[in-house]
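note to self — DONT lose this again. spent like an hour looking for the file last time. sequence + predicted structure for the chain T wanted, 104 res
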Amino acid sequence: MKLTLEEANRIMAENNGHLDLYNTEITELPKNLTVGCDLYLSFTEITELPKGLKVGGDLDLRNTPITKLPDNLKVDGNIFGDPNLQPAIKRYYNMQKTSRNLLP
């Protein structure tokens, strides 16, 4: 089941900016989604994150089939994932550290 931007905004409005999709039938998120706080995707069948995803808090990807992160992902908090996702998480944090070091 694909989540629409309208549905995502409604859920966040009802949950103080959090998008809690834990254990739902969601398989796809809308492109350029901005989540004000945490995004919970644990125990979903979502296989990839959309381009332009921005998360103002934590991103929980535990118990999902996701194995890579999009290049333009922005997460202000922590990323949680299974062992198969750990190399991608490490790469993400290394890229963030490098890009921060490049700023004047």
